[in-house]
Structure formats: C-alpha cells, structure tokens
Write a structure and sequence with these properties.
The chain has eleven helices and no strands. By secondary structure, the chain is an all-alpha fold. The chain has two domains: 90 residues, Orthogonal Bundle (Rna Polymerase Sigma Factor, Chain: A), CATH 1.10.1740; 112 residues, Winged helix-like DNA-binding domain superfamily/Winged helix DNA-binding domain (Arc Repressor Mutant, subunit A).
C-alpha cells in the first residue's frame, strides 16, 4: 500500500515538474488535510495553520524540481510542511515551552518508567467523564512540549504516521525517534495524571496507597 502511494505520488510529481497544473491541484487535494493537521500541531491556531498549509504548497510548487525522486515524496513534503509551520511560528510572539524533564522529573534513571505512584494512578483511571476531559487536555499538553518531542508525538500518535516515516521526515534515526516518543508520551501522561488526580483526589490517594511499599 505504501509503495503504491509513493508510486502514485511520483507520477503526480513528474507531471507537476512538466507544468501540469491539474496534477498540482490533485496533489493539493490529496495532502491538504494532512498538512493542515501537521501545521495545526505546531501552531495550535486554525488561521495560522491554514496559512502555513498554503505556504507549504507554494513552496512545493516553486521547488518541486529540487525533489530527489529516489526519496519518498511523502517524507520530503512533510519536511517542507513542517518548515513552513515553524517559519510562521517564528513570526508570532514566542510561545512558552517547558523542558521535557520538568514534565517527567523522575525519569532520571533512564529505565523507561515513571514513578510507582504515577503508574498506579494511571492504571486506576476509569471514570468516563474524567477520561473525556483528559482526551481534551492531551492536545494542550502536547502543545507545551519542546518542539523535538511535540513533533514526534503529534505525527505518530495523532497523525498515525509510521515511526520509520516520521524518522525520515525529521531526518533522525529510528532509535532517536523512539526515545523522543517514549519520553513525550510519559510527559503527557504525567500531566494527564495530575489533572485526573485533581478531579478525583480520593482515587489518587488510593493509587499512592497501592504503590506504597
């Protein structure tokens, strides 16, 4: 399926290089929604995301001749789109991001686990109302992450891109991507657990009691 998609993309690319405007319109239709979603993940603002999406397609139109057809078009164009989103972000007032270790301060040992209290509490979240609120808050917490972590969790967990494709897009190793993704997920879960604990202190106390030696 992925090979078929790339072959179809390359067919459009070659037509666009040849000056086929209809092929360009087809490419816009194919990728507009996904590029917009990626841009929104960076900018967290609908108007800015739409403008960044237009910037990405304008760059595509102007620089399509520079595309190396030995690469996956999908990964190359997502990199173009990501750059367009960050370029627009730099034009705005800088947002506030928090170092990843401020989210997961107990991850110093590198064992891939949060604190026992955190793990116990996450396991105990069952209330549907709380779960819905946590889902709504997750996007905000992702937005607060440093860009290197925000990009990977948004692409993999929200966009549902394959890790290998994300690594190629970001031009990092698969191992580095997995490490960033793991830490980003722990950071978001830690924040979600804090919200859930505030909504249900009795449940949090139970989680701490269960985790106590």
């Amino acid at each position: 399926m992925a090979e078929d998609q790339n072959a179809s993309d390359l067919e459009l690319v070659r037509k666009i290089k040849g000056g086929d405007d209809q092929a360009f319109r087809e490419m816009v239709e194919r990728y507009h929604a996904r590029v917009y979603s990626l841009s929104y993940g960076v900018l967290h603002n609908a108007e800015d995301a739409e403008e960044a999406t237009q910037d990405a397609f304008l760059t595509l139109y102007r620089k399509i001749d520079t595309f190396d057809e030995s690469r996956k078009f999908f990964s190359w164009f997502y990199r173009v789109a990501l750059n367009a989103a960050y370029s627009r972000a730099r034009r705005r007032r800088p947002g506030v991001t928090v170092p990843i270790d401020d989210f997961v301060p107990r991850l110093k040992g590198g064992d891939g686990q949060g604190s026992p209290e955190f793990a116990a509490w996450v396991d105990g979240i069952e209330d549907e109302t709380i779960s819905r609120e946590l889902a709504q808050r997750a996007e905000d917490f992702i937005q607060e992450l440093p860009p290197a972590y925000r990009d990977v969790i948004w692409m993999v967990d929200v966009e549902e891109m394959k890790p290998a494709d994300v690594a190629e897009t970001l031009e990092i190793s698969l191992a580095a991507l997995k490490s960033r993704l793991h830490r980003a997920r722990l950071a978001v879960r830690e924040r979600l657990a804090e919200v859930a604990s505030a909504r249900n202190p009795a449940g949090a106390a139970e989680g701490e009691r269960r985790a106590a030696p």
